[in-house]
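Memo to structure team: turn this sequence into structure tokens by end of day. - J.P.
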Amino acid sequence: MRHRKEPPGDKNIIGTRVIAIRKAKRMKQKDFLARLQTFGLDISPTSLSRLEGQYRLVQDYEVVAIAKALEVSVGDLLGQD
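Reply from structure team:
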């Protein structure tokens, strides 16, 4: 696994939480992508990487699908819980 060479971006606030939750659940990116598809969100590996690195904007419907795929609340992703 490669580590990021650059600091996180500023395009979203959920990227670092997505990484932390996904890794805590021992879920690889490819497994997470497959899980996202079951919730109706089809994004590329590059797009997920950019989302996690906070270099990509996240749509509201994507936040909902990501929360469902990670089995957490939207509030958890937004740092409200």
